[in-house]
Every structure is written in C-alpha cells, then in structure tokens.
Amino acid sequence: MEKVLLSIISAAGLCAVLCHAERRYHFVYEEKNMAEARSYCREKYTDLATIDHMNDVKILNDMADLSRMNYSEFSYRAWIGLYDDMNSWRWSLTNTSFYKPGETEFRNWKPGRPNNYGSRQHCVVMDINGLWNDHWCDFHQQPVCSDVTGSNVTFVLAPTTMSWSDAVIYCREHHTDLASVRNMEENQKIKELASGLFVWIGLSRESWKWVDGSRSTFRYWGVTQPNNQFGKETCVAADFGNSGKWEDCQCHYKRAFICYSVPVSKQVIKVRLVKQSSSLDLNDPAVLEDMLKELRQNLRDQGVTQDVRLSWRKQADGKVFHKEKKKEKKKRNKIRMTRKTDL
What we know:
Elements: E1 4-7, H1 11-19, E2 24-32, H2 34-44, E3 47-48, H3 54-63, E4 77-84, E5 90-91, E6 121-126, E7 132-136, E8 142-149, E9 152-157, H4 164-174, E10 177-178, H5 184-194, E11 199-204, E12 208-210, E13 235-239, E14 245-249, E15 255-261, E16 272-275, H6 285-301, H7 326-342
Parallel strand pairs: 4-15, 8-11
Antiparallel strand pairs: 1-16, 2-15, 3-15, 4-12, 4-13, 5-11, 6-7, 6-11, 8-9, 8-10, 13-14
C-alpha cells in the first residue's frame, strides 16, 4: 500500500500529548509475593509501579508509611515492577529463515546453568567440553563467528579475545554474525574448532525489564545491588528504610507493593496529510486502518506502553479527510512566512 506522509506536528508531537498523562502511585500494604502483587495491580489499577526518574522516587518516599511495612525479615520493602527475565535468551542472528522449527530453542547448558551469578551473567560461552555457561558479557573470550549462506553455515574462530558485544560487532563486520547453535552436530563442530578454549557463542538475554513493557532505563540500585546473593533474586523491591533504593530479592517474599494508574483522558489532534500518490483514497477504510497501525507503532517506538486507543473522527458527511482548499493553504503558507520573518 502507498505510504502517506503524516504532518501531525510530527509523531513525536502526538507522543508529547499522550505521554504526559500523569501516573498515579498507590501503596498497597497487604502483604503479597511478586506474582500476587502484579495480579492485584492489574486488576485494581494499571500495573506494578514503573519508576522513570528521581521525582518519582521522591514522591514514593513521601508516600511510604514505614509503620505498615514491618515484616519478620527485610522490613520497609515494597515490590515495584522491575524483574530479571531469566527466560529471554535470544540468538544474535535473528534471520528466521536460518532456523527450522524448534532450532532457536536448542540448548546445551552445563548442569546448574544458567545461574545468573551476581545478576550480570547475560551472555553465553561454550566451555572445553562443549557445554554452555552464562557469563559476564564484559569478560574477554575468543568468539566463534558464522558465515551463513541460506541454511548452510561455516564456523570461524576469531583470532583475538574481546567482550561479547564487541564480538557481535566483529563477527558482523567480518562474517555474518556470532555463531548460532541449532543442534548437537553444530555444537560438536564448534567444540572441535575451539580446541580446548572457552568461546563466545551468539546467545544472550535481556537483563532488568519492567512488567508493563516500559523501556525506561532509570535505575536506583542500592550499594552492591543487584547481587543475586541467594541465586534466585529476580524481583525488585524498593527499600524505604534506605531512601527508596532498590534491591534484587527472591520473588516469593510477602511484602507491600506499589501499583500505578493512569487517568483516562481524551485528546483530539488535527492531522494534515500529504499524499505521495494522487490515486490514493485517504478515506478508504483499509488506508485509514493502515495509518492507525503506523501511528501505534510510532508510539510504541517512543516508549508509550499505556493503553492508548487511536481512532479517526468522521465529519458530518461521513468522511475523515477533505482536500485542503487553496485559500486555506495560502493562508497557512503566509502564516509560516510571517513566523520565519519574525525569527
């Protein structure tokens, strides 16, 4: 379908209107584990709390009632919506045609792995026995790259050691990508190629994520946190006995939690479209729906994860768009020229 240029003030302008809906926090002092807290927040409000900046931290510190957060251990903590996604392992080579059904899920972990020791083991090395270990991504190992043609692959051992992220860059510059391992046969080939070395392969995972899908990168960890001290600390609580700083915790603990809600609001935005093809009917239902999909994607790309609903407003004659009259166009251009002169 022909694309349409959207002059909305720009998609960023649309986001600016929708993104600034005020987020309201709600402390719930009924003690629940992380999963129960999340279900409660989604039922009663929007979700477990996402925290974007220090102003949010200040608001929560002012709201917290420490007298209602006394537990048998680790008092003054409350769950927030940050968690470590232990099951988000993905190959750096994302071309789906390279994998047959089930091949992206092939794993050859060493017993007891992955264990996420220290909460920072998000990349994978193959050891001298061909078994996989989760490892710190900034550690230096030699990578195994792949040269891919269709479904065929050749593995190449890089000559120098480097971090996992540098390995991705190196392999993509000199070959196709870091090695994906689709089956035991390929695993054996890499083991023999490495010949007694620990080597990077192309498997990694995301670290801390917000349960509502927010892309906020704001973090407020306490000293030495996250540390995964007991090997299973994949959930996060704010410690209001320590200025609301965050710590990783085991998810089964029962404690208070913080939900958030976003007030429902309605915004009407005027849109001017510039057609690239004179044959395109802007009032065609298929064209209108295609443009809404593009706008929704633009909002997601800019981090808008709230329940935003977009729809077109029809005019009295049942149409959404009308061709701009020449007089209106001249008037608009004149206004633009005047503004430019004033500047």
